[in-house]
Amino acid sequence: MNNRGDAIQTAVLRLIAEKSQDNLDVLEIPLDVPMARLGLGALEKYELIVALEDKYDISIEESDGSLNSWTASTLAACIKKKLVEKPSKTVNWKDAFESFVFTGKVSALRTPLSIHLDPTFRCNMRCVFCYDSSGSGHGLAEMTLEEIQGIIDECVELDVVDVTFGGGEPFMRSDFLDIVRYAKRKKLRVFLLTNGTLITAEAAKSLAACLDSRFDMVQVSLDGPRAEVHEQQRGVKGSFEQTLAGVENLRSVGIMPVINTVLTRLNFEFIPEMIDFLMDRGLTRYRVLRLHPLGRARDRAYYDSLSLTPEESEDIFRFLSRKREELIGDFHISNDNACIFPMSAKEMRIKIPPLAGREPASDACGAGTTKISIAPDGSVFPCSYMYEFPELRVGSLRERSILDLWNDEGLWELYRKPLTPTGKCKSCEYLYGCKTGCRILSYAFFGDMGAPDPGCHYQPGSDIEETKEGNALCRA
Ligand SMILES: C[S@@+](CC[C@H](N)C(=O)[O-])C[C@H]1O[C@@H](n2cnc3c(N)ncnc32)[C@H](O)[C@@H]1O
Ligand code: SF4
Ligand code: SF4
Predict the structure, then answer these.
(1) Nearest residue by C-alpha to atom 7 in ligand 2
(2) What is the pLDDT of residues 331-359, one digit of tens each?
(3) Exposure of 34 by Cβ count < 10 A (0-12 exposed, 13-18 middle, 19+ buried)?
(4) Given this model, what pLDDT does residue 29 score?
(5) How far does the centroid of ligand 1 lie from the alpha carbon of residue 386, in Å?
């Protein structure tokens, strides 16, 4: 592989380019020429160390060697070594790379950081909202174990950091554990998304033998603390107990799953009870996901009937924020708020400064800039929320490699170039931070990726009006 495709090296080169007095272009920086000859003075060298320490959350001692004699390759190798020594910090450096994209400094990384791979769309549940409309498998010719292993091999070559396996229900494949074992043998970080119903004691034991609890994650869907609440969303009687049995099997081999709930009008009143339910069972990791108008929930009237009202959204958001702080250390509620609510929630807005008139530095999300998604038949999409839109398919791994597709800039133009905000987003004072929300949800709803996120309830200008009237935005 071309070693310029190495993500860490690319990041180091970009930092050197930023610091160099000679205004070097990233592409011009040789990998094997000492820093001293790259126009880095003492101050720039110091700034480079601080920037690297900040970005990777590691400390680079002068005694590690004189940076003057180091090359970009040796610096990248040092960072990698330190990251291996400090595994708990790996999330930070992944964030650091993503921030290059999200702050507009680059439009895409040289190779993807994350791969989402759905080995099947078959499923034993019939969730009323399933964004993949999973069930019988859509009649797709699923990739074989060997084909998936080939993809994993390429991920390793490309320095991909993590692979998420979802679906459909991944455990519907009899060879799913072989897939996971292979990915772990290749030292990838693995995230599994499952409804838990098929995780037998044996399957749990096999998972425990290959997963590393420091890096890997198993997410199990549970939509409520009572059978009737969970099952009216999952569409299958008896699934509540089956999921709890799967969770128990995981717990008994030492795997603490993340429990995920999709928030709808059917279950939101049970969220406080759900937290107690999980805590009583010693489950300590929880995530709540807002409903996306995709798949079986795409029909507008149906989506509206299942979604929370703006007031209910605000209430539950406030409740979760308060609970997160109250339970800190005992129970973890994920704070990936953008997944839970769009920026439009009032509690989100007060955290980002309104920057009226300022264009977003970049309106990128991870789709096609830091990650790709692979459907069961090898089709590649920028994001797993896009499968139902064949016009957004960028190619197939049955025909081309990941790198070949990734480097074909024309395929990713929609995702690597700024979007044009439309509708109310054009005049919104939060556009800079919000970037119009999730583009695929806007596309599904309005046929326009630059349109406001369908979950946005904010009327641009109303916060300013409120402030003017002396009814200042509550910052408590
Ligand atoms: C598509 S499922 C695949 C994994 C597995 N079958 C499961 O249900 O956990 C991945 C996650 O997406 C959630 N999900 C499905 N449809 C959704 C929708 N329309 N909006 C938000 N989340 C959804 C599921 O509840 C699950 O947590
Ligand atoms: S959300 Fe998961 S469990 Fe439900 S139908 Fe879709 S793939 Fe199956
Ligand atoms: S109007 Fe647009 S930019 Fe403003 S908060 Fe809503 S989605 Fe975001």
Answers:
(1) 168
(2) 999 866 555 555 566 766 666 655 555 55
(3) middle
(4) 78
(5) 14
Residues with Cβ within 8 Å of residue 17, at least 6 apart in sequence:
24, 25, 26, 29
Q: Which of 453, 463, 473 to mutate to test the pocket of ligand 3 (most atoms within 8 A of CB)?
A: 453
- Ligand 1 is surrounded, with C-beta below 6 A, by 123, 127, 129-132, 166-167, 169, 193-195, 221, 260, 262, 289, 291-292, 294-295, 297
Listed in sequence order, the residues at least 6 apart from 66 whose beta carbon sits closer than 8 Å to its beta carbon are: none
Task: Tell me the mean pLDDT in the region 399-427.
Answer: 91
Give the position, in ligand 1's atom list, of the atom nearest the Cα of 220.
Answer: 9
Closest atom of ligand 3 to CA, residue 453: 7
Give me the pLDDT at residue 239, please: 98
Between the CA of 131 and the centroid of ligand 1 the distance, in Å, is: 7
Q: Where residue 417 falls among pLDDT bands split at 50, 70, 90?
A: confident
User: How does residue 380 score in pLDDT terms, banded at 50, 70 and 90?
Assistant: very high
User: What pTM did the predictor assign?
Assistant: 0.81
Take atom 4 of ligand 2 and give the residue whose Cα is closest.
Answer: 127
Lowest-pLDDT choice from 10-14, 82-86, 420-424: 82-86
Describe the strand order of the beta sheet including 371-374 as a list of residue ranges: 332-333, 285-290, 258-263, 217-221, 189-194, 162-165, 114-117, 371-374, 379-381, 395-396
Using DSSP bridges, classify how beta strands 371-374 and 332-333 pair: parallel, antiparallel or unpaired: unpaired
Nearest C-alpha neighbor of 248 from the set 204, 280, 288, 214: 204
Distance CA 120, CA 329 (A): 36
Protein residue with least CA distance to atom 6, ligand 2: 130
- C-alpha of residue 432 to centroid of ligand 3, in Å: 9
Nearest CA residue ID for atom 1, ligand 2: 130
| 317-339 average pLDDT score | 81
Ligand 3 atom closest to the Cα of residue 424 is: 1
Region 361-373: what's the mean pLDDT? 82
The atom number, within ligand 1, closest to the CA of 129 reads: 19
Surface-to-core class of residue 150, CB atoms within 10 Å of its CB (0-12 exposed, 13-18 middle, 19+ buried) = middle
Under 8 Å CB-to-CB from 349, ≥6 apart: which residues? 343, 430, 458, 463, 473
Q: Check pLDDT > 70 for residue 12.
A: yes
